Amino acid sequence: MAVTIGVACEHAAGERRVALTPETAKKLVAAGARVRVEQGLGRFARFTDQAYVEAGAEVVQGDALVDADVVLCVQPPPATSIAAMKAGTVLVGALQPQADEARGAAIREAGVVAFPLERLPRTTRAQAMDILSSQAGMAGYKAVLIAAQLAPRFFPMLTTAAGTIRPTKVLIVGAGVAGLQAVATARRLGAQVECFDVRPETREQIESLGGRFLDLGVSAAGEGGYARQLTDEERALQQQRLAEHLKGIDVIVCTAAVPGRPAPKIISAAMVAGMKPGSVVVDLAAETGGNCELTERGQTIETGNGVVVAGPVDLASQGALHASEMFARNLYNFVSLLLRDGTLAFDWDDELLAKTVWPERATG
């Protein structure tokens, strides 16, 4: 019997993305699966019910997850929905099972085979399934647009009859996927862009996008391409030099994040106090505590010295159409590892399955 893939509407506040697009629905149907989606699934991402029907999916009113063998989601379903799934149901998405005790318990007790894709090994083969990277790209893009909107200035240099206007000086903190997208976007808007990262090996990537690597004279280069922990003296020197540099910066976009842990605090309140009035800080890491000490999750505030600090959330959802296309392709590529002639087949020797599944399987 063909595997049934069910996708329900997302219920998390502010979530506009979908885990299945008409494009990926068509591919799954072609692979022999039966695809069932809840009516109105793609309305916020601008995918119509008719588009899903034309792709070969069944659009249903009410619960699309009843008797589903595979459930796809962006954010995890409520614990009550997970508890109602039949034993052996495969659940794939950004699940964070250890972040919510009730959700984790529901997965275990229902016998659900969960694949939280944030646990996916970061290997070359896994890149096509990497939801963290695909969604970070949209977040980095949107963060710069927010900064441009909040800044009381042009980003590019302009020569006008009223005189020449210098370009905005933008500093991107963190050269991961979001940071590099932010560098590229700020450059496209014509800003003068620098990027700061504790890993000196990111210099080449930053410069390839037209940015300048900000070298504070303190290297955190470690073994195997990973950053090492700075000593107290090195960190103090780095903070001192960064604070001095920020006095000449117009816009900061913070993107530094560590999966599964609070965001590192990089921009102190004292640094913000030393910035010019009219400066802007957009903290993409607001959802995990923020890189800036003054960041308030989901809020935009103005400090006493006239610096605006924004802590936007759900940035990827603000570009729901393209973010959904990327997310859904990530899920399709992963689910393809589980399908054989339209039925489920688990190859637990495949590290992408074995290292992503939760609860973890016993080895030996």
TrEMBL record:
Enzyme Commission number, as recorded: 7.1.1.1
* TM stretches of this protein: none
Keywords from the UniProt entry = NAD, NADP, Nucleotide-binding, Translocase
EC class, as a word, reads translocase
User: Which reaction(s) are listed as its catalytic activity?
Assistant: NAD(+) + NADPH + H(+)(in) = NADH + NADP(+) + H(+)(out)
Quote the function comment for this protein.
The transhydrogenation between NADH and NADP is coupled to respiration and ATP hydrolysis and functions as a proton pump across the membrane.
Per the UniProt record, the lineage of the source organism begins with: Bacteria, Pseudomonadati, Pseudomonadota, Gammaproteobacteria, Lysobacterales
A Pfam family per the record: AlaDh_PNT_N
Q: Where is the Alanine dehydrogenase/pyridine nucleotide transhydrogenase NAD(H)-binding domain?
A: 148-311
Q: Which residues form the Alanine dehydrogenase/pyridine nucleotide transhydrogenase N-terminal domain?
A: 6-139
The family note in this entry says: Belongs to the AlaDH/PNT family.
Q: Which organism is it from?
A: Luteimonas rhizosphaericola
Q: What's the protein called, per UniProt?
A: proton-translocating NAD(P)(+) transhydrogenase
